[in-house]
Specification:
α1 links the parallel β1 and β2. With 427 residues, the protein is an alpha/beta fold. The chain has two domains: 202 residues, 3-Layer(aba) Sandwich (Rossmann fold); 126 residues, Rossmann fold. Helix content is 41%, strand content 14%. The chain is built from 17 helices and 14 strands. It is elongated.
């Protein structure tokens, strides 16, 4: 099929490259000409494992990129909206970018002959596709949804760092369409996948995405709550959760205690679902507690630090790990951010290292010291806080000898070295 993908960020670029890999003809559309030029040259606009390989393989062949909405939509049968839905101050999602993309598509549909399906892949709260996107399309196109064009919702379930693999090897594919025709056409895109397509309506598809991420976030906050309790009781929370995870109803995934969750999905999605629940008159106490635990968790790192070395004024603290998780340069909602902010508030001097995320973190904390090696960040430090689960941190040993005081507070349970003053966040 011929597909246009609106938006070339994390979801859009992966969606475009993977559909090209499965044999479809794909056009990327974005207002950012630099990104479009990069994709046409086979250069990924973001870091994502395997994405560069796919772009190099398909760019200029069955994958092209343009800033021209009209040419892209006129030449394709299905358009995927993959633009950002950032959080507003109250936690609700900002639909301004979705509106702009939708209106641009509608304006082209007004002049296009034939049936076209518009698919929302951006993460939006239940009722958005039918009560927001669909009306904008009808208004700007002058046509009728379900008759002149189709509308569907197809949420993504991609892990950053493993998004290409997850797209090509899905646990589930969900298509929520306003009618059978649109649902069948979108489902046809996935006919080469072994995973069966779950067909439903748009609001249910939207809710599946939010319920999925909220449950995973809840498991993490639950594990952290149990970890905090275990620490006070001098019980190894990892031993506890290893046994708990053997229960087939629970599974061992997302039960590791630590500094909490971050990224572009979990915090934003849980907050958005909280906002939607309150909008319809329901108080989501459990979801609010998930966020509350997650926001308090990283600050426990600095509380442990103060108990160990007292006043932090003028002390040099090494922070290892800036990305919200390993294998990505993404710092959105990274648990290192509140920790660094608190260290600076308390007068500490911060020396930071991360294999990939330094340039991104410089935009938030331009004045702290950044180093290209962990050893250099540790040199002369009064203490070290470990915030990201990078494999290279597991290999650190002699590097700690360069510290002024060998105090390590580990937020991810990755440090294995001996002969240091080591304390885990929840263990």
């Amino acid at each position: 099929m011929k597909i246009s993908v609106i938006g070339s960020g994390y979801v859009g670029s992966v969606t475009a490259a993977c559909f090209a890999e499965t044999g479809h003809e794909v056009v990327c559309v974005d207002i950012d000409k630099k990104k479009m030029d990069q994709i046409n040259e086979g250069i990924p606009p973001i870091y994502e494992e395997g994405l560069g390989e796919l772009l190099r393989k398909h760019a200029g062949k069955n994958l092209t990129a343009t800033t021209d909405y009209e040419s892209a939509i006129r030449k394709t049968d299905i358009s995927f909206i993959c633009v950002g839905t950032p959080s507003a101050e109250d936690g609700s999602i900002d639909l301004s970018i979705v509106r702009a993309a939708t209106a641009s598509i509608g304006a082209v549909l007004a002049k296009k002959k034939g049936y076209h399906v518009v698919v929302v892949k951006s993460t939006v709260v239940p009722e958005t596709t039918e009560k927001f996107v669909l009306p904008v399309l009808e208004e700007t196109s002058g046509k009728v949804a379900g008759k002149d064009f189709g509308v569907a919702m197809n949420p993504e379930f991609l892990r950053e760092g493993k998004a290409v693999y997850d797209f090509m090897n899905p646990d589930k594919i969900v298509v929520g369409a306003i009618d059978q025709k649109a649902g069948a056409l979108v489902s046809e895109l996935y006919k080469s996948f072994k995973c069966k397509v779950t067909l439903t309506n748009p609001s249910t598809a939207e809710m599946i995405k939010y319920a999925n991420n909220s449950l995973l976030a809840t498991k993490i906050s639950f594990a952290n709550e149990i970890g905090n309790i275990c620490k006070k009781l001098k019980i190894d929370t990892y031993e506890v959760m290893e046994a708990v995870g053997k229960d087939s109803r629970i599974s061992p995934k997302f039960l590791n205690s630590g500094a909490g969750f971050g990224g572009s999905c979990f915090p934003k999605d849980v907050k958005a679902l909280i906002g939607k629940a309150k909008e319809i008159g329901y108080s989501p106490v459990l979801l609010e507690s998930v966020i509350d635990v997650n926001e308090k968790q990283p600050i426990l790192m600095t509380e442990i630090l103060k108990k160990k070395i007292g006043n932090l004024e003028g002390k040099r603290i090494a922070v290892l790990g800036l990305a919200f998780k390993n294998e990505t340069d993404d710092i959105r909602e990274s648990r290192a951010i509140p920790v660094i902010a608190e260290l600076l508030r308390l007068g500490a001097k911060v020396s930071a290292y991360d294999p990939m995320a330094i340039e991104n973190m410089k935009r938030i904390f331009p004045t702290i010291e950044y180093f290209e090696k962990a050893k250099d960040a540790l040199e002369g430090a009064d203490a070290c806080l470990v915030m990201t689960e990078w494999d290279e941190f597991r290999q650190l040993n002699s590097e700690f000898e360069a510290m002024k005081e060998k105090i390590i507070i580990d937020g991810r349970r990755v440090i294995k070295t001996k002969n240091v003053d080591y304390e885990g966040l929840c263990w």
